[in-house]
Amino acid sequence: MATVQTRETRQKLTGLQWLICATGALGFAFAIYMYLMLPLIVGPATAELLGAKPGSPELNRWVGLMFWVPALCGGAFGLLGGYLIDRLGRLPVLVGSILLYGLSAFLGGFAPSMGWLLVARCGVFVGVSVEFVAAVTWLAELFPDPKQREAVIGYTQVAQSGGGILVAAVYGAAVTVAPHLPGALGGYEPWRYTMMTGLIPVIVVLLLLPFLPESPVWQEKKRAGTLKRPSIGELFTPSFRRTTIVTTIMMACAFGAASGAIQQMPRIVPGLPELAGMSRTAQQQTVSLVQTFQEVGGIFGRFFLAFLAVRIVSRRTLIRIFQVPGLILLPLVFIFPATQNLTLVKWGIFLVAFTTISQLSFWGNYLPRVYPTHLRGTGEGFGANVGGRMLGNMMVAITTGIVASMPGHNPATQLAYAAAAVGTALYVISFVTSFWLPEPKSGALLE
Q1: pTM for the full model?
Q2: Residue 323 sits in a domain of what CATH number?
């Protein structure tokens, strides 16, 4: 299998490096495609499989389970995946994670019950959780030049928001086309067709696999017998304790604001006054449109972060550029436009996504620089999965749990207020914690 040898003086990417970037972008895009599928399909899926009414305790319970239980599994197995990345290599774990989330989503499209769908979502979440860490570690070690590495990781992560736009478009197309499909192709609800598209990344990655190299940094240490054994306990030694604790808290806040607030928008939009007289199909199409605005905002935010990442030395300054406006925008958007006006909701969620989703890209650039080779996957896995997936996605359960105690004339309005409360609290915690965020000692990766 080919290897990549990139000198720090090299500026232009080779053909193989472009393929590597394309593969990383593909993995990021479809991981978010699978991840953001749930906010779009959870309403229609529960309606079909449960027959529960919007806002009912049973529906809210299952929605909370669908968000939090897979996140718990993803966090636990994602942490194991980070350990395996350091033990088995970056590439095999990356490929395996893509196969897992793709096949799990495809099988979820045939779910006869909420239990089946929940198990499928757990498989999706485990794959997505492992993929992020594996892809970031793999890309970081294939591009040793600091500025080139920052640019590659930053810009390939933009594809994550592209995946969000793609799933919104696919779901919108399924809503439009599904009722008109003839014969054996017809008969399924649109959410099922959306999940079945999980087979696409499986096919693509199998075609690309023969051309992809392993990380030369990891491979050389493995061959030389100098690769240390990874240890979760080492993350809490004096050398890494502060880094581990601070990044875990801040990633929990970033993912929590995304899942506990932003991803609730598809359930908030149908409660807007403009949608009151619409058919169910028209409402779902409107939800898809708002989701598109959200993902475009995320794309612009990720692009802006990638642009700044190679120009701003201080990592604290970089993340605060997004934290401060987000702390103001999130409560304003969810308290006012999200309960009153569709047009303002579209542009409001664009801006909230710009400031919030970009912070998820920040960690892809930051984490590879603060852990050594033998601990890189394990350290990234702990922050991203224990912090981001487990603690962060637990915010969904808090949001849905406090809905009933919120003011408002309908369940959607109550959900908007709950999302505002949870999202704002997380922004405050993240901003305060950022004062303890360690600055990387240099642009070079730790050995």
Answers
A1: 0.82
A2: 1.20.1250.20
